[in-house]
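User: Design a sequence. Structure:
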């Protein structure tokens, strides 16, 4: 009977298997010799599916058991209240996740030698993992990816749950030093940093131009408006400068108004990963002053494509980016960002070594390295 890892995850959209990054993690664990089973839960909002055709499509598409890339995936529908009671003392969403999988989990441990419950992310899957740990005493990790953890960390009841769960599970896996430092403030000593992997695309050897690119959801926390303001300052000195913005979101119209019909600010919207990589390869400078930020895979993708990468001081990428060595860390200040960009454009040859170090740092972020660190921590 093979050693089995059970991953707790969820379906993010109708265009992916469940969570793309978790599936990459699962495949890497399988490649290390483990049988991997994924519980992928679909949030079910009572009565909403009656009026929402997209929700009905999702519920119909994701059901039953599937085998994909050697990974066994069980799709389970679970009751969800979204963020209606998010900050309450009772973790309703996490409890309903547990209810949706507990019978299936019981049947799996009878058949398979389950050595690890691997939950992604904290708030919902983490709570279910905590309940399973209490019942079956199987080694349990909860990986804290960012937004779910930050939302909990920033309210009293959330912090209480983080501490309570941390006393039972074996390890919190943190995707950044920032998250580990937050856990340390709660006197939690079983937190370990393991960076996510990134999916590498073959470069096309496209011509690189001395322009700026930013990528992210067009929401207030990504601070794309700060990037536009920085760009406008720099353009006064470098009139041929262009800014490419990749992503979509509720702030699209606000940002387009801020751009004021500048033909050199290009909004590409949501595009495929291959198009993202092409644009990273074509641009010299990547800027994303995001806050809060768990880690931000896009920074590593930019570094892998040898962009000179500018991230936010004190956020998740701080620690992976070493200021002035393989990238830059800045406060969310458009003038400070503009000064760095100006220096890069005025002296591009000065930063060749930094680009190489950025590439070498990002190159280590394979999913296989990620899986090996989980297994090392498992001690199996």
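Assistant: Done.
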């Amino acid at each position: 009977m093979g050693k089995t890892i059970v991953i707790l995850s969820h379906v993010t959209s109708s265009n992916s298997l469940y969570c793309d990054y978790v599936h990459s993690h699962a495949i890497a664990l399988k490649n290390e010799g483990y049988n991997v089973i994924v519980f992928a839960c679909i949030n079910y909002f009572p009565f909403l599916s009656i009026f929402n055709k997209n929700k009905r499509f999702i519920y119909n598409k994701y059901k039953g058991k599937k085998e994909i890339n050697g990974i066994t995936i069980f799709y389970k529908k679970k009751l969800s209240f979204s963020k209606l009671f998010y900050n309450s003392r009772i973790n309703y969403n996490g409890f309903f996740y547990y209810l949706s999988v507990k019978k299936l989990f019981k049947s799996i441990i009878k058949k398979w030698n389950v050595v690890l419950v691997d939950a992604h992310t904290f708030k919902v899957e983490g709570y279910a993992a905590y309940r399973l740990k209490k019942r079956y005493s199987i080694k349990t990790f909860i990986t804290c990816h960012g937004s779910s953890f930050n939302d909990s960390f920033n309210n009293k009841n959330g912090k209480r749950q983080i501490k309570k769960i941390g006393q039972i599970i074996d390890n919190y896996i943190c995707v950044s030093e920032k998250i580990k430092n937050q856990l340390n403030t709660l006197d939690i000593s079983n937190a370990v940093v393991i960076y996510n992997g990134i999916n590498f695309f073959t470069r096309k050897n496209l011509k690189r131009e001395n322009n700026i690119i930013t990528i992210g959801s067009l929401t207030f926390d990504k601070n794309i408006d700060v990037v536009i303001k920085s760009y406008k300052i720099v353009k006064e000195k470098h009139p041929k400068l262009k800014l490419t913005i990749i992503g979509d979101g509720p702030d699209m119209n606000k940002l387009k108004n801020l751009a004021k019909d500048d033909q050199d600010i290009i909004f590409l919207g949501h595009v495929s990963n291959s198009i993202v990589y092409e644009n990273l390869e074509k641009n010299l400078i990547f800027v994303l002053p995001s806050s809060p930020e768990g880690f931000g895979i896009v920074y590593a993708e930019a570094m892998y494509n040898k962009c000179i990468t500018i991230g936010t001081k004190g956020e998740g990428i701080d620690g992976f980016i070493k200021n002035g060595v393989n990238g830059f860390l800045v406060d969310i200040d458009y003038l400070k960002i503009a000064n760095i960009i100006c220096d890069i454009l005025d002296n591009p040859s000065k930063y060749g070594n930094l680009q190489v170090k950025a590439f070498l740092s990002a190159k280590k972020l394979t999913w296989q390295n990620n899986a090996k660190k989980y297994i090392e921590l498992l001690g199996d």
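Residues 197 and 366 are 5 Å apart (CA to CA). The domain at 3-197+367-378 is CATH 3.40.50.2000 (Rossmann fold).
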